[in-house]
Structure formats: C-alpha cells, structure tokens
Amino acid sequence: MAMLLATESNEWAYVASAYGLVIIVLVAYAAWTIARGRRVGRQLPSEDRRWM
Amino acid sequence: MNTDTKGPGSGAGLFRVYPGGTASRGSRTFGIVLAIATAVFLAFALLWSPPDSGANASENQMGEMVRIMYIHVPVANACYLAFFVTALGSVMYLWKKTDGWDLLAAASAEVGVVFTVLTLATGSIWGHIAWGTWWEWDARLTSTLLMLVVYLGYLALRRAILDPVVRAQRAAIVGLIAFANVPIVHYSVTWWRGLHQQATISRFDPTIDGLKLFSLLFGMLVGVGFYVWLMMHRFRLEYAEAKLESKGLDVALAERRAEAMADTAVDTTGGTLIGPKGTN
Fold first, then answer.
1. Are the beta carbons of B233 and A22 separated by less than 8 Å?
2. Using CA atoms, how far apart are residues B196 and B127, in angstroms rounded to an integer?
C-alpha cells in the first residue's frame, strides 16, 4: 500500500512538472511578446496600427 | 521616435489597454474566453478524468501519467499547425509577393518553435517515467528534434539578411522545404518501430474513450486557441517591426539623397560648380 502511494505521488510530481512547465513557458512567451509589442508599437503612428 | 501622444492607457490592472501595444478588443475578449477554457481544461485533465486503469484491452495502464498526454498531444498538434501556417505563408508569398504573407510565416514559425520545445520537454518528462530515460534516439523524437533545429535555422536566416525582399524570398523557400519534415515527424511512429506509442486518436478507433478522450480533444482545442491568441499578438508585432524597419530605410534613403544633393551643390566658397565627391 505504501509502495503504491509512493508510486502515485511520484507520478503526480511528473504530471505537475509537465503542466507547470507548459503554463510557465506559454505565459512567459506571451508576456514577452506583449511587452515587445508595446515597445515597438509606441514608436508607430496610430494610423499604422490598424488593429486598434 | 515616439509619435504616440495618447496617455498610458485606459482600464485597470490586467485589462489595461495600452494604445501602443498589440492588443485589441478582439484579442482581449478571446484571451478572456481562452483563460476560462484553460481553467475548465485543467479541471478535466487533472481532477475530473480518471487515471488510466488499463481496464480496456487497448489501454496500457498508464495510471496518473495519462494526464501528461492531455497536454503533450495538444502542444504537438499546435506546433504542426504553426508550421503548416508558415508553409502556407511561404507559398503565398512566393506566389503573391505580398509582405503580409511573409510576416505571417515568420510569426507562426516563432510560435511553432515555442510549441516544439514544449512538445519535446513534456515528451521527455513522460519518457523518464514510462521508458526510464529522458531521451532516446527514437524516430519520433529524433525527427522532432530535427524539426526544431530546422525552424531555429529559419528564424536565424531571417535575422541574418538585412534586405527585406531578399530575406522574404529566401525565408519562403526555406519555410517551404522545412515543412517536408512535418509529415515525417507525424508518420514516423508508423514507418519505423520505436519507443514512442502509435497515434491515439488520429484514426477511426481511438484507443481511449469517455472523459479521457474528451480531456484530450478539449486540450487540443485549447492548444489551437493558444496558438491563435499568440499569433494575434505575434503577427501584429511582426507587422509593427516591419513598418518601423521600412520607416528606418526611408529615413536612411532620404539622408543619403540629402548628402548627394549637398555634394552636387554649388561650392559657394570657391564659386565653382562641383559634382558628386571625387568627380570634379
């Protein structure tokens, strides 16, 4: 029983690592892209930002 | 050169709208829907779907590890989609010679590289507990790594060439050739025997069912949603950078013309008409 619980908690550690990694990387990439967009977009006149 | 005379933005907190950014009403609304869908997906994937008991003959008794598949397959699916869009943008650029297609291809390649890194990383985590190794030179893993290297090369090529037209043409050719590896990655598990399992759902008799199948399909939908949302921002950033680059080139050309005009002007000090430097 104790061995089964240990195996299960070990599996959950791997599952949490996979989900955590994906969430952290996607959020970091999105934040980086948005920050770059703000920096570059501010240098353009509003008529060149047609999505606004 | 800051031409934006508006204030720092409207709204508050996370929903603050920066007038100079890549966000729009559409991207923000889609982002909120995506955040809710992600929360629901996480609940299905981590809480509501059962562990794999191996009760069905087709199941492999993966236990809790089956949950990694709900996130590994969607990120892999998103990278295929991203590279397909890069190939589409490349073909359309070579055909139409329209800058927008080149920008779409470039933006999608970068997003695709991020998803490919996540595909390899989540696959590696899976492999460590399922196969007992972080990496194996299996056909699927090797071809995926090759795909990552090729698209990193595509992005490096874009940074190496300064002329926008030459860059777009060469990148379109590379973007098209690079896509040839994508079907090889997908069918590698069928063509060569290796550690990686065969396709789970891309056939008429999926090897999982019920909540597990729903979690996987919902995860794939969320993955595509993330790709679309990231592309909204990444394409606008690529567009803004291209606009700035073209303005920079215009300024440089105007300065060069002004210098040439000054050189050909009358030398008032000597009273003689002189040509461009070194011609008189």
1. no
2. 9
Average pLDDT for A22-51: 87
Residue A18 touches chain B, beta carbons under 8 Å? yes
Contact B86, B112 (CB under 8 A): yes
CA dist A38 and B111 (Å) reads: 18
- Residue owning tokens 């073209």: B246
Query: Which amino acid type is present at position B33?
Result: V
List C-alpha distances in Å: B2 to A27, A44, B20, B24, B247.
28, 7, 10, 20, 13
Question: Which pLDDT does position B112 carry in this prediction?
Answer: 98
pTM (whole model) above 0.80? yes
- Nearest chain B residue to A45 by CA distance is B3
What angle in degrees, to the nearest 10, is found between the helix axes of B99-130 and B139-160? 150
DSSP three-state, residue B273: strand
**What is the domain class of B25-54+61-236 according to CATH?**
mainly alpha
Distance from CA of B126 to the nearest CA of A (A): 7
In percent, the amount of chain A with pLDDT more than 70 equals 77
Domain ranges of chain B: 25-54+61-236
Quote the minimal CA–CA distance from B260 to chain A in Å.
Answer: 28
Q: Which helix (H) or strand (E) is B164 found in, with range? A: helix B164-178
What single DSSP character describes residue B16? Answer: P
Contact flag A21-B125 (C-beta cutoff 8 Å): yes
Q: Is A47 on the interface with B (CB under 8 A)?
A: no
Residues of A in contact with B117 (CB under 8 A): 25
The number of angstroms, rounded, from the C-alpha of A28 to the middle of its chain's C-alpha atoms is 5
> Which residue in B20, B46, B64 is closest to A38 by CB distance?
B20
Alpha carbon of B68: minimum distance to chain A alpha carbons (Å) = 6
